[in-house]
Amino acid sequence: MSIWSRFENWGHFVSGILMCVLGICLIFFNTYFVAGVTWWTGILLTLVGLFRAVEVFLPKHKAQGSKARLLNLVSALAHIILGTIVMTWSGDAAKLLSFGVGLYQLMIGLVSLFTYYLLQKDRAKGRLKELVIGLITFFWGIGTLLSTRSVRDTLVLVGIYVIFIGITWLIDARDLLMTDKTKQRKRRRWRVGVPVFFTMLIPADIHSKINHLLNDEVSPEEVEETLIPQVKKKVKGDPVLKVFIHVSEGIFGSVGHVDLSYKGRVYSYGSYDVDSERVFSAVGDGCFFTLDDKDYITYCLEYGKTLFEYRVALTKEQQEAFEKKLKELEDMTVPWELTSETQKASYMGLMVKRFHAETYKFTKSRFKTYFVLGTNCVLLADQLIGTSGLDLITMVGILSPGTYYEYFHKEYQKPNSIVVGETIHNASLNISEVEE
Q1: Which segments does the entry list as coiled coil (predicted)?
Q2: Which phi and psi (to 5°) does residue 346 adopt?
Q3: pTM, whole model, 2 decimals?
Q4: Does one domain contain both 146 and 235?
Q5: Residue 106 to residues 134, 149, 201, 322, 341: CA-CA distances in angstroms?
Q6: Which residues contact 425 (CB under 8 A, 6 or more apart)?
Q7: Helix (H, G, I), strand (E, B), or coil: what is residue 224?
Q8: Domain contains 145
Q9: What's the domain range around 278?
Q10: What does the pLDDT read at residue 284?
Q11: 274 vs 125: CA distance, rounded Å
Protein backbone atom coordinates (compact mmCIF):
# COMPACT_ATOMS: atom_id res chain seq x y z
CA MET A 1 0.00 0.00 0.00
CA SER A 2 1.36 3.45 -0.95
CA ILE A 3 2.07 6.18 1.61
CA TRP A 4 -0.78 8.24 0.16
CA SER A 5 -3.25 5.36 0.49
CA ARG A 6 -2.13 4.84 4.09
CA PHE A 7 -2.63 8.54 4.80
CA GLU A 8 -6.08 8.43 3.15
CA ASN A 9 -7.07 5.42 5.26
CA TRP A 10 -6.12 7.26 8.45
CA GLY A 11 -8.27 10.09 7.11
CA HIS A 12 -11.27 7.71 7.19
CA PHE A 13 -10.47 6.99 10.85
CA VAL A 14 -10.24 10.69 11.75
CA SER A 15 -13.48 11.37 9.85
CA GLY A 16 -15.21 8.66 11.86
CA ILE A 17 -13.99 10.20 15.13
CA LEU A 18 -15.15 13.66 14.06
CA MET A 19 -18.59 12.33 13.10
CA CYS A 20 -18.96 10.71 16.53
CA VAL A 21 -17.91 13.96 18.24
CA LEU A 22 -20.36 15.90 16.08
CA GLY A 23 -23.16 13.53 17.04
CA ILE A 24 -22.34 13.81 20.76
CA CYS A 25 -22.34 17.62 20.51
CA LEU A 26 -25.73 17.59 18.80
CA ILE A 27 -27.15 15.41 21.58
CA PHE A 28 -25.77 17.27 24.60
CA PHE A 29 -25.37 20.86 23.37
CA ASN A 30 -28.23 20.69 20.88
CA THR A 31 -29.50 24.05 19.57
CA TYR A 32 -26.62 25.96 21.20
CA PHE A 33 -24.09 23.86 19.30
CA VAL A 34 -25.84 24.37 15.95
CA ALA A 35 -26.15 28.12 16.57
CA GLY A 36 -22.50 28.35 17.63
CA VAL A 37 -21.18 26.43 14.63
CA THR A 38 -23.33 28.54 12.30
CA TRP A 39 -22.14 31.78 13.95
CA TRP A 40 -18.46 30.88 13.64
CA THR A 41 -18.99 29.74 10.05
CA GLY A 42 -20.45 33.17 9.29
CA ILE A 43 -17.50 34.87 10.97
CA LEU A 44 -15.03 32.75 8.99
CA LEU A 45 -16.76 33.57 5.69
CA THR A 46 -16.77 37.28 6.55
CA LEU A 47 -13.07 37.27 7.50
CA VAL A 48 -12.17 35.49 4.27
CA GLY A 49 -14.14 38.10 2.32
CA LEU A 50 -12.46 41.00 4.15
CA PHE A 51 -9.02 39.47 3.60
CA ARG A 52 -9.69 39.08 -0.12
CA ALA A 53 -11.05 42.63 -0.37
CA VAL A 54 -7.90 44.05 1.22
CA GLU A 55 -5.71 41.77 -0.91
CA VAL A 56 -7.25 43.14 -4.13
CA PHE A 57 -5.87 46.60 -3.40
CA LEU A 58 -2.38 45.50 -2.42
CA PRO A 59 0.28 46.73 -4.88
CA LYS A 60 1.78 43.26 -5.37
CA HIS A 61 -1.51 41.41 -5.78
CA LYS A 62 -1.16 38.55 -8.25
CA ALA A 63 -4.23 39.68 -10.24
CA GLN A 64 -2.87 42.86 -11.82
CA GLY A 65 -5.52 43.25 -14.56
CA SER A 66 -8.61 45.34 -13.88
CA LYS A 67 -10.95 42.48 -14.87
CA ALA A 68 -9.18 40.03 -12.55
CA ARG A 69 -9.29 42.55 -9.71
CA LEU A 70 -13.00 43.11 -10.28
CA LEU A 71 -13.72 39.36 -10.17
CA ASN A 72 -11.72 39.00 -6.95
CA LEU A 73 -13.55 41.98 -5.45
CA VAL A 74 -16.94 40.49 -6.36
CA SER A 75 -15.86 37.19 -4.76
CA ALA A 76 -14.78 39.05 -1.61
CA LEU A 77 -18.10 40.90 -1.39
CA ALA A 78 -20.02 37.66 -1.92
CA HIS A 79 -18.14 36.06 1.01
CA ILE A 80 -18.89 39.05 3.22
CA ILE A 81 -22.59 39.12 2.32
CA LEU A 82 -22.95 35.35 2.75
CA GLY A 83 -21.09 35.47 6.06
CA THR A 84 -23.35 38.26 7.30
CA ILE A 85 -26.48 36.33 6.30
CA VAL A 86 -25.22 33.18 8.02
CA MET A 87 -24.46 35.09 11.25
CA THR A 88 -27.86 36.81 11.12
CA TRP A 89 -29.68 33.48 10.77
CA SER A 90 -27.51 31.57 13.24
CA GLY A 91 -30.21 31.79 15.90
CA ASP A 92 -32.65 30.00 13.60
CA ALA A 93 -30.13 27.48 12.27
CA ALA A 94 -31.43 24.68 14.50
CA LYS A 95 -34.99 25.23 13.23
CA LEU A 96 -33.79 25.23 9.63
CA LEU A 97 -31.83 22.01 10.21
CA SER A 98 -34.88 20.43 11.85
CA PHE A 99 -37.03 21.56 8.91
CA GLY A 100 -34.58 19.95 6.46
CA VAL A 101 -34.65 16.70 8.43
CA GLY A 102 -38.44 16.77 8.39
CA LEU A 103 -38.52 17.22 4.62
CA TYR A 104 -36.12 14.30 4.16
CA GLN A 105 -38.23 12.07 6.43
CA LEU A 106 -41.33 13.08 4.51
CA MET A 107 -39.65 12.22 1.20
CA ILE A 108 -38.52 8.79 2.42
CA GLY A 109 -42.01 8.14 3.77
CA LEU A 110 -43.65 9.01 0.45
CA VAL A 111 -41.18 6.82 -1.44
CA SER A 112 -41.89 3.89 0.90
CA LEU A 113 -45.66 4.36 0.62
CA PHE A 114 -45.47 4.49 -3.18
CA THR A 115 -43.27 1.38 -3.15
CA TYR A 116 -45.93 -0.31 -0.97
CA TYR A 117 -48.60 0.65 -3.52
CA LEU A 118 -46.58 -1.00 -6.31
CA LEU A 119 -45.89 -4.12 -4.20
CA GLN A 120 -49.55 -4.37 -3.23
CA LYS A 121 -50.58 -4.13 -6.87
CA ASP A 122 -48.14 -6.93 -7.78
CA ARG A 123 -49.03 -8.98 -4.67
CA ALA A 124 -45.34 -9.15 -3.81
CA LYS A 125 -43.87 -10.25 -0.49
CA GLY A 126 -42.54 -7.70 2.00
CA ARG A 127 -45.21 -5.10 1.31
CA LEU A 128 -46.41 -4.92 4.94
CA LYS A 129 -42.92 -3.98 6.11
CA GLU A 130 -42.78 -1.24 3.46
CA LEU A 131 -46.16 0.08 4.60
CA VAL A 132 -45.11 0.24 8.27
CA ILE A 133 -41.84 2.00 7.41
CA GLY A 134 -43.65 4.40 5.10
CA LEU A 135 -46.33 5.35 7.63
CA ILE A 136 -43.87 5.82 10.50
CA THR A 137 -41.45 7.90 8.45
CA PHE A 138 -44.20 9.94 6.78
CA PHE A 139 -45.96 10.96 9.99
CA TRP A 140 -42.63 11.47 11.74
CA GLY A 141 -41.70 13.90 8.98
CA ILE A 142 -45.06 15.69 9.24
CA GLY A 143 -44.64 15.98 13.01
CA THR A 144 -41.12 17.36 12.64
CA LEU A 145 -42.28 19.99 10.15
CA LEU A 146 -45.34 21.14 12.11
CA SER A 147 -44.13 21.02 15.72
CA THR A 148 -41.85 23.86 16.83
CA ARG A 149 -41.22 22.09 20.15
CA SER A 150 -39.65 19.06 18.47
CA VAL A 151 -36.46 20.86 17.35
CA ARG A 152 -34.41 19.68 20.31
CA ASP A 153 -35.72 16.13 20.01
CA THR A 154 -35.01 16.14 16.27
CA LEU A 155 -31.42 17.26 16.87
CA VAL A 156 -30.96 14.46 19.41
CA LEU A 157 -32.12 11.91 16.84
CA VAL A 158 -29.87 13.49 14.21
CA GLY A 159 -26.99 13.25 16.69
CA ILE A 160 -27.63 9.53 17.27
CA TYR A 161 -27.83 8.99 13.50
CA VAL A 162 -24.53 10.85 12.97
CA ILE A 163 -22.85 8.74 15.68
CA PHE A 164 -23.94 5.55 13.91
CA ILE A 165 -22.47 6.93 10.66
CA GLY A 166 -19.24 7.65 12.53
CA ILE A 167 -19.15 4.12 13.96
CA THR A 168 -19.67 2.69 10.45
CA TRP A 169 -16.77 4.80 9.17
CA LEU A 170 -14.57 3.71 12.10
CA ILE A 171 -15.26 0.05 11.36
CA ASP A 172 -14.39 0.67 7.71
CA ALA A 173 -11.20 2.47 8.76
CA ARG A 174 -10.28 -0.43 11.04
CA ASP A 175 -10.64 -2.84 8.12
CA LEU A 176 -8.57 -0.54 5.91
CA LEU A 177 -5.75 -0.29 8.45
CA MET A 178 -5.75 -3.93 9.57
CA THR A 179 -2.79 -6.14 8.77
CA ASP A 180 -2.90 -9.28 6.64
CA LYS A 181 -4.35 -11.19 9.59
CA THR A 182 -7.74 -9.69 8.90
CA LYS A 183 -10.27 -12.19 7.57
CA GLN A 184 -13.22 -11.60 5.29
CA ARG A 185 -16.51 -11.69 7.17
CA LYS A 186 -18.83 -14.60 6.49
CA ARG A 187 -21.98 -12.69 7.41
CA ARG A 188 -23.26 -9.30 6.38
CA ARG A 189 -23.41 -6.53 8.96
CA TRP A 190 -25.75 -3.58 9.16
CA ARG A 191 -24.38 -0.31 7.83
CA VAL A 192 -25.63 3.23 8.43
CA GLY A 193 -24.91 5.50 5.50
CA VAL A 194 -25.32 9.20 4.86
CA PRO A 195 -28.61 10.39 3.28
CA VAL A 196 -28.92 9.41 -0.37
CA PHE A 197 -28.65 12.98 -1.72
CA PHE A 198 -25.03 13.03 -0.46
CA THR A 199 -24.11 9.95 -2.52
CA MET A 200 -26.41 9.86 -5.55
CA LEU A 201 -24.22 12.15 -7.67
CA ILE A 202 -20.87 10.57 -6.74
CA PRO A 203 -20.57 8.70 -10.09
CA ALA A 204 -21.26 11.95 -11.97
CA ASP A 205 -18.61 13.72 -9.90
CA ILE A 206 -15.99 11.07 -10.73
CA HIS A 207 -17.08 11.21 -14.38
CA SER A 208 -16.53 14.98 -14.31
CA LYS A 209 -13.04 14.48 -12.86
CA ILE A 210 -12.17 12.06 -15.67
CA ASN A 211 -13.32 14.57 -18.29
CA HIS A 212 -11.36 17.32 -16.56
CA LEU A 213 -8.20 15.20 -16.57
CA LEU A 214 -8.71 14.35 -20.23
CA ASN A 215 -9.17 18.01 -21.13
CA ASP A 216 -5.90 18.75 -19.35
CA GLU A 217 -4.25 16.04 -21.50
CA VAL A 218 -3.22 14.00 -18.47
CA SER A 219 -1.69 10.63 -19.38
CA PRO A 220 -3.65 7.43 -18.65
CA GLU A 221 -0.98 6.44 -16.12
CA GLU A 222 -1.48 9.69 -14.17
CA VAL A 223 -5.25 9.30 -14.28
CA GLU A 224 -4.86 5.75 -12.98
CA GLU A 225 -2.67 6.94 -10.12
CA THR A 226 -5.17 9.69 -9.29
CA LEU A 227 -8.36 7.62 -9.34
CA ILE A 228 -7.33 4.04 -8.56
CA PRO A 229 -5.25 3.17 -5.48
CA GLN A 230 -2.60 0.46 -5.74
CA VAL A 231 -3.42 -2.30 -3.29
CA LYS A 232 -1.82 -5.70 -2.80
CA LYS A 233 -4.56 -8.27 -2.40
CA LYS A 234 -4.24 -11.59 -0.58
CA VAL A 235 -7.68 -13.14 -0.79
CA LYS A 236 -8.47 -16.66 -1.95
CA GLY A 237 -11.13 -17.27 -4.57
CA ASP A 238 -11.75 -16.63 -8.25
CA PRO A 239 -12.69 -13.13 -9.52
CA VAL A 240 -15.73 -14.48 -11.37
CA LEU A 241 -18.08 -11.69 -10.27
CA LYS A 242 -17.93 -8.15 -11.63
CA VAL A 243 -19.91 -5.13 -10.48
CA PHE A 244 -20.44 -2.44 -13.12
CA ILE A 245 -21.41 1.05 -11.96
CA HIS A 246 -21.94 3.29 -14.93
CA VAL A 247 -22.69 6.95 -15.51
CA SER A 248 -23.44 9.15 -18.51
CA GLU A 249 -24.79 12.59 -19.37
CA GLY A 250 -28.35 13.62 -18.53
CA ILE A 251 -30.45 13.62 -15.36
CA PHE A 252 -30.92 9.86 -14.95
CA GLY A 253 -27.52 9.12 -16.50
CA SER A 254 -25.74 11.25 -13.91
CA VAL A 255 -27.34 9.24 -11.08
CA GLY A 256 -25.92 6.05 -12.61
CA HIS A 257 -26.86 2.40 -12.96
CA VAL A 258 -25.61 -0.92 -11.55
CA ASP A 259 -25.21 -4.25 -13.36
CA LEU A 260 -23.49 -7.53 -12.50
CA SER A 261 -21.39 -9.89 -14.57
CA TYR A 262 -20.88 -13.50 -13.51
CA LYS A 263 -18.38 -15.72 -15.32
CA GLY A 264 -18.35 -13.42 -18.34
CA ARG A 265 -22.12 -12.92 -18.58
CA VAL A 266 -23.87 -9.64 -17.67
CA TYR A 267 -27.17 -9.74 -15.79
CA SER A 268 -29.02 -6.42 -15.86
CA TYR A 269 -32.32 -5.25 -14.37
CA GLY A 270 -34.15 -2.07 -15.29
CA SER A 271 -37.13 -0.41 -16.97
CA TYR A 272 -36.09 -1.33 -20.49
CA ASP A 273 -39.59 -1.47 -22.01
CA VAL A 274 -40.12 2.13 -23.12
CA ASP A 275 -43.77 1.41 -23.89
CA SER A 276 -44.45 0.58 -20.24
CA GLU A 277 -42.75 3.63 -18.71
CA ARG A 278 -44.88 6.04 -16.70
CA VAL A 279 -44.59 8.65 -13.91
CA PHE A 280 -41.90 10.56 -15.85
CA SER A 281 -40.07 7.28 -16.68
CA ALA A 282 -39.57 6.52 -12.98
CA VAL A 283 -41.85 3.45 -13.12
CA GLY A 284 -42.10 0.66 -15.69
CA ASP A 285 -42.20 -3.09 -16.22
CA GLY A 286 -39.33 -4.89 -14.53
CA CYS A 287 -37.12 -6.15 -17.38
CA PHE A 288 -34.08 -8.38 -17.26
CA PHE A 289 -31.44 -9.08 -19.90
CA THR A 290 -28.25 -11.13 -20.22
CA LEU A 291 -25.33 -10.50 -22.54
CA ASP A 292 -21.63 -11.31 -22.96
CA ASP A 293 -19.81 -8.73 -20.83
CA LYS A 294 -17.33 -7.80 -23.57
CA ASP A 295 -20.19 -6.90 -25.91
CA TYR A 296 -21.87 -5.10 -23.03
CA ILE A 297 -18.79 -2.93 -22.36
CA THR A 298 -18.40 -2.17 -26.06
CA TYR A 299 -22.03 -1.08 -26.36
CA CYS A 300 -21.92 1.08 -23.22
CA LEU A 301 -18.78 2.90 -24.37
CA GLU A 302 -20.29 3.54 -27.80
CA TYR A 303 -23.33 4.90 -25.98
CA GLY A 304 -21.12 7.48 -24.23
CA LYS A 305 -21.05 5.85 -20.80
CA THR A 306 -18.21 5.52 -18.31
CA LEU A 307 -18.06 2.20 -16.46
CA PHE A 308 -16.51 1.60 -13.04
CA GLU A 309 -15.76 -2.12 -12.79
CA TYR A 310 -15.07 -3.95 -9.51
CA ARG A 311 -14.00 -7.59 -9.53
CA VAL A 312 -15.07 -9.81 -6.64
CA ALA A 313 -13.34 -13.11 -5.80
CA LEU A 314 -15.75 -15.85 -4.74
CA THR A 315 -15.07 -19.22 -3.17
CA LYS A 316 -16.82 -22.33 -4.48
CA GLU A 317 -19.39 -22.09 -1.69
CA GLN A 318 -20.08 -18.44 -2.52
CA GLN A 319 -20.39 -19.26 -6.22
CA GLU A 320 -22.94 -21.96 -5.43
CA ALA A 321 -24.94 -19.54 -3.28
CA PHE A 322 -24.80 -16.88 -6.00
CA GLU A 323 -25.93 -19.32 -8.68
CA LYS A 324 -28.79 -20.52 -6.48
CA LYS A 325 -30.05 -16.97 -5.93
CA LEU A 326 -29.63 -16.14 -9.61
CA LYS A 327 -31.66 -19.23 -10.54
CA GLU A 328 -34.43 -18.13 -8.15
CA LEU A 329 -34.63 -14.76 -9.86
CA GLU A 330 -34.52 -16.24 -13.36
CA ASP A 331 -37.40 -18.58 -12.46
CA MET A 332 -39.55 -15.48 -11.84
CA THR A 333 -39.11 -14.28 -15.44
CA VAL A 334 -40.45 -15.17 -18.88
CA PRO A 335 -38.87 -14.42 -22.27
CA TRP A 336 -39.79 -11.00 -23.64
CA GLU A 337 -39.74 -10.12 -27.33
CA LEU A 338 -39.50 -6.51 -28.42
CA THR A 339 -42.26 -5.95 -30.98
CA SER A 340 -43.14 -2.25 -31.31
CA GLU A 341 -41.10 0.24 -33.31
CA THR A 342 -40.40 2.32 -30.20
CA GLN A 343 -39.07 -0.75 -28.39
CA LYS A 344 -36.83 -1.68 -31.31
CA ALA A 345 -35.46 1.87 -31.54
CA SER A 346 -34.72 2.07 -27.80
CA TYR A 347 -31.48 1.46 -25.89
CA MET A 348 -32.59 -2.13 -25.31
CA GLY A 349 -33.78 -2.64 -28.88
CA LEU A 350 -30.49 -1.55 -30.44
CA MET A 351 -28.58 -3.83 -28.07
CA VAL A 352 -30.75 -6.80 -29.02
CA LYS A 353 -30.36 -6.06 -32.73
CA ARG A 354 -26.57 -5.79 -32.58
CA PHE A 355 -25.53 -8.27 -29.88
CA HIS A 356 -28.60 -10.55 -29.61
CA ALA A 357 -29.09 -9.90 -25.89
CA GLU A 358 -31.58 -12.26 -24.22
CA THR A 359 -34.49 -10.29 -22.77
CA TYR A 360 -37.00 -11.24 -20.07
CA LYS A 361 -39.71 -9.73 -17.89
CA PHE A 362 -40.51 -10.51 -14.26
CA THR A 363 -43.92 -12.05 -13.70
CA LYS A 364 -43.91 -11.93 -9.90
CA SER A 365 -41.95 -10.70 -6.84
CA ARG A 366 -41.15 -7.08 -6.02
CA PHE A 367 -39.13 -6.89 -9.24
CA LYS A 368 -42.24 -7.19 -11.43
CA THR A 369 -42.53 -3.40 -11.41
CA TYR A 370 -39.42 -1.23 -11.60
CA PHE A 371 -39.31 1.94 -9.47
CA VAL A 372 -36.22 4.12 -9.69
CA LEU A 373 -36.34 5.08 -5.98
CA GLY A 374 -37.45 1.70 -4.64
CA THR A 375 -37.23 -1.56 -6.55
CA ASN A 376 -34.35 -0.52 -8.78
CA CYS A 377 -31.20 -1.99 -10.34
CA VAL A 378 -29.23 -1.59 -7.10
CA LEU A 379 -31.73 -3.56 -5.04
CA LEU A 380 -31.57 -6.56 -7.37
CA ALA A 381 -27.76 -6.41 -7.51
CA ASP A 382 -27.64 -6.20 -3.71
CA GLN A 383 -29.72 -9.38 -3.34
CA LEU A 384 -27.26 -11.28 -5.51
CA ILE A 385 -24.14 -9.71 -3.98
CA GLY A 386 -25.46 -10.53 -0.51
CA THR A 387 -24.63 -14.19 -1.12
CA SER A 388 -20.90 -13.26 -1.07
CA GLY A 389 -21.00 -11.74 2.41
CA LEU A 390 -20.34 -8.15 1.32
CA ASP A 391 -22.18 -5.97 3.79
CA LEU A 392 -23.85 -3.15 1.91
CA ILE A 393 -27.20 -3.02 3.71
CA THR A 394 -29.00 0.18 4.68
CA MET A 395 -31.41 0.32 7.61
CA VAL A 396 -34.01 2.59 6.00
CA GLY A 397 -33.64 4.64 2.85
CA ILE A 398 -32.74 4.47 -0.81
CA LEU A 399 -29.89 2.50 -2.33
CA SER A 400 -28.25 4.43 -5.17
CA PRO A 401 -25.41 3.63 -7.60
CA GLY A 402 -23.43 6.34 -5.81
CA THR A 403 -23.78 4.42 -2.55
CA TYR A 404 -22.43 1.36 -4.32
CA TYR A 405 -19.49 3.24 -5.85
CA GLU A 406 -18.50 4.69 -2.47
CA TYR A 407 -18.72 1.27 -0.84
CA PHE A 408 -16.83 -0.75 -3.44
CA HIS A 409 -14.11 1.87 -3.92
CA LYS A 410 -13.45 1.74 -0.20
CA GLU A 411 -13.81 -2.04 0.00
CA TYR A 412 -11.19 -2.48 -2.75
CA GLN A 413 -8.64 -0.63 -0.59
CA LYS A 414 -8.91 -3.22 2.19
CA PRO A 415 -6.00 -5.71 1.90
CA ASN A 416 -8.16 -8.75 2.60
CA SER A 417 -11.45 -7.75 1.05
CA ILE A 418 -12.84 -10.04 -1.63
CA VAL A 419 -13.10 -6.98 -3.91
CA VAL A 420 -9.79 -7.61 -5.70
CA GLY A 421 -9.86 -5.38 -8.78
CA GLU A 422 -10.89 -1.94 -9.95
CA THR A 423 -11.00 -0.71 -13.55
CA ILE A 424 -12.44 2.32 -15.31
CA HIS A 425 -13.79 1.95 -18.85
CA ASN A 426 -14.09 5.15 -20.86
CA ALA A 427 -14.18 5.63 -24.64
CA SER A 428 -11.37 8.21 -24.46
CA LEU A 429 -9.37 6.50 -21.77
CA ASN A 430 -8.00 3.02 -21.24
CA ILE A 431 -7.27 2.42 -17.57
CA SER A 432 -6.39 -0.93 -16.06
CA GLU A 433 -5.58 -1.61 -12.47
CA VAL A 434 -2.20 -2.93 -11.38
CA GLU A 435 -2.67 -6.66 -11.16
CA GLU A 436 -2.32 -8.19 -7.75
Answers
A1: none
A2: -80, 175
A3: 0.76
A4: no
A5: 9, 18, 21, 36, 40
A6: 297, 300, 301, 306, 307, 308, 309, 431
A7: helix
A8: yes
A9: 180-430
A10: 95
A11: 26
